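Troubleshooting: if your tokenizer reports a length mismatch, compare your output against this known-good record of 579 residues.
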Amino acid sequence: MPTTPFRRPAVLGEDPSDVVVRHTTKQGATRAYDFGQLPMAPAMQRSLAVLFAAKCTDGSWTSLKTSMGTWRHLHTLGKFWSEQEIPPADVPDLTAGMWSAWRLSRRTKTENGYNQVMVTQLLLRGNSRLPLEVRAVMARRLPEPKVQEIAFEPDEFRAIKAAARRTFRSALLRIRENTGHLNAWRNGDFARGSREWAVGEALDLLARTGDLPRRTSANGRTRSVVPHYAKVLGGGTPDHTWKRLFLARLEAAALGVLLVTEFGFNGATMSEMPVPRAVPDSGEKSGVRVYRLELEKRRRHAGHHFESRNITDHGADSAGRLISDALEATALARAYVAGRTPAVDRLLVWRSKGNKSWAAANAVGELIRVGPFGLGADTHAVALWAQERGLPGKVLRRGRKTVNVVHRREPGQNTQDTHDRVYVLPEPQARQAAVEVIVDGVNDAVEAARRSMLRAQLADTPQSGDQETATASCSDFEHSPFTPPGAGCGASFLLCTACPNARIAPVHYPRLVHLHAALENLRSVLDPPTWNTDWYDAHARLEDLRQRLGTEVWNQAQQHVSALDRQIIDSLLNGHFDS
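Known-good structure output:
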């Protein structure tokens, strides 16, 4: 995976009154946390700031989403402490009763309530002054909340993919057309002074700077595109200017939805995915381009999961075509970012409307800003995009689950245990699909047992009217379960032990014992697949017969095998007594 030089330690001043911690991730995203704002005693603020700073610097927290989530939970904890009769002044003042009260006050059956308890106690355990009685309470098991998200129904999933495809496709065609005009201008295809030349000049300026020259209104409240370029492009709105070359925020959100619903990526993995590189020599002769996707997923308490996938673009309906289109739609935005921060490497780049920042709490992965461009996904934008189109919520999480549980049916940046326990077992569609599989499995097991169990009847002596076969006697030759009624039995004599019409008397034991031994000999000289296909069932039924007769009777029968028995069995195995 590519590395970046942005990693810096969290800042925590030496002055006890300075309790500001700055968390900067390896992607360059940064945020400051002022622990002086927490509703708790100064000594407690300092203790928590020290613990917080350690997590930011030791590699435990690689995401601003993690540090921001912990910060919110600490604020909630501080508010709870402030409402107690005697709030704790510092970590050693915590009591088992106080922590139990905090735990009971949370709705731990929900994901947020569960995290409030687990995250705060995990942080506090890092302080050696935490009383043992409090540690004992923290050690009590807290059941994980049940997963609430379920996979999309097939119609919902198709509607979401179709809507995302329409949004992104419209943006791609717009960018493709204007990029073609820009390239033609750079190649000198337009006469200087013509309208086409003027448009090309404006597009070139947009590509290089991300914007067009603007002037401030008299009241200082607005900054509009200078009239010259506004006139050339037909207006000064985003639709007339920067949207010609760059994805907008909601269009990038639609692209993120497509990536998740196509590949089953984790949201943060999709957001932080580096630019896919084409495998060397791919596409040069065959025209089929292969991309290598380098994926990274942060796992809770378990470091990182790295994975690479090769995705092939072999046509309009292939998964690789989405990668090709994404590269094309973001090319100029990525070129702008690369020219200013070469170390930043992301596929998903979009242009914001203005220079206002956005709430990182709404980020999937880490949102990074380079000039007017945002890098990464924005869950608020995804939710807004879905809402505007009348689609269900939590598109990324539910879409990922739909792909990995219902379609791919295999883990996606998860362990097999997590995939089965967290994603598959709670999913109604997976349980419904499992019913048919279980029924088929049971039927197969029953059928296998039926084939391998002795169904012939054991008799003390041959019955009057029975017809002798190569292995037993038959009480109803005309009504065989293996052939149509009235046609007479045409089955192999090896199937007599599987037929309820057959009778096995002591006179047949030696012959069947010899058949059992002959099948054992065949197993020693044939490859297992062949033996299993041709002889396993017949051998299993004879094993069942041996169990029923007992070792003593079986051994006695072995001593009475005649030359005729050997001749009949040899002919049977050599194909002379097929029916």
